[in-house]
Design brief:
This protein has 13 helices and no strands. The protein is mainly α. The chain has a single domain, classed as Orthogonal Bundle (Endonuclease III, domain 1). Keywords: 4Fe-4S, DNA damage, DNA repair, Glycosidase, Hydrolase, Iron, Iron-sulfur, Metal-binding.
Amino acid sequence: MDFNHKLITWYSDKKRELPWRETSNPYYIWLSEIILQQTQVKQGLPYYDAFVTQYPTIFDLANASETSILKLWQGLGYYSRARNLHFTAKHIVNELDGKFPNTYKDLLKLKGVGDYTASAIASIAFNEVAAVVDGNVYRVLSRYFGIETPINSTLGIKEFKSLASTLIDHKQPATYNQAIMEFGAIQCKPKNPDCTVCPFQDSCVALQNQMVDVLPVKLKKTKVTVKYFNFLVFMDPNKKHFSKNALKKVFGNISFNFL
C-alpha cells in the first residue's frame, strides 16, 4: 500500500535515534512504554536511562524495593505506573520464570498494560502483527482519511482500531507501528503541523478540506460540579416562620428567596 510505503520511507529518514529502538529485548521495550505513558519522550528519556542503568534486567527490577523504585521515579508523576512496573516485574520473575509473555493476548494480562502497550510490545519485541493506536495514531488517521468520528467514543475507538489493523504492514509490523507513532509525534503534530513538507500533502483529506485544525474530533466530557448549600430558617419564639417583610425590617433591603 502506498500509505505504508510513504510512511516507512519517511520514518527511515526522519526518525529520532532512541535507545529502545536499538533493541528487541521485551524488558527494555516494556520499560520504555510504561515510562512514556502520559509522558513526552524528552522528559522520559533520562528516566529510561536511569532505570536501565540501575536495573539492567527484569530480575534486578523485581528484587528492588518499592521505595528505591519510587525514588528513581520521582518527578515523573502518575506513581501507579511505577508500582505496576514493580508488581509486573515480580510477577514475571516469580510466576513466569523471568520470561516475558510473547503475544498480544498474554501481554494484555499484565498489570498496567492496556491495548496500546500490549500491541507495541508484541509488535516491536516479537514482530506480531498487532496495530498500535495511541494519540498520535488517532491524529494521523483522522486527518489523512478525514474521519470525524470522535476518538474517545465507543464507536470511534472500534473504528480506528479496525482501520489501524487493516493498514499495518504484515511484513514489518514493528517498523510500521513505530513509523506511524513517530510521524504523529514530530510531523503531524497537534498544533501547527508543517503540511508543506508532509509526504501525504497530495492525499490528506484534512489538508484538502482545510480540516487539519479540527481533526481529530474529541467529545467534551461533562464536568459535574458538586455544590453545597446552607439554609437558615428564621422563627419567632412561638416557632413560626418570619415573613419576608419581617425579615426585611431586621436585615434591611436584602433579597430573600422562600422555597
